[in-house]
Specification:
Radius of gyration: 17 Å
Number of domains: 1
Distance between the termini: 38 Å
Order of helices and strands: EEEEEEEEEHEEEEH
CATH architecture: Sandwich
Strand order of the largest sheet: 3-2-5-13-10-11
Number of helices: 2
CATH topology: Lipoxygenase-1
Largest sheet: 6 strands, antiparallel
CATH class: Mainly Beta
Amino acid sequence: MTSNHLNFETLNFKIGLTATYWGRKPQYTVLLNGTTYAEGQCDDSTLYVKFSADVLEDRAHCLEIRLENKTNLDTVVQGNEIVKDMLLNIDSIEIDDIELGEVKWNKSEFRPDDPNKPTLTRCVNLGWNGSYQLKFSSPFYLWLLDNT
């Protein structure tokens, strides 16, 4: 007799965000597999977004951090130099009390909402509206061992 029992893993997330801005504060959304776990505004002091989630084992998952509200007016250019800007900075990502360090750079990509802008790798300072995406699988510890 075969079992169709699905196994879940509970993961604890702690994401450190800061902002660079001169006028309006950046608005962010944090999602896991398309489900919103946090949203709000960020300033220049570190904001920690914490949540727990059950994820299916032996499946791919996606942690997504979005910059939502930037407009052209939030960037001031003088000559060829940006002198004022709005950025959402991903300072740290911990999963189950493990700081991902370089993994948050090396295994992620940034997908801008504007289809005319390129997808970026190694981008944790979000300067366009769009999604930072970190794709991983469960069991998380096995994925981490394979990707560090």
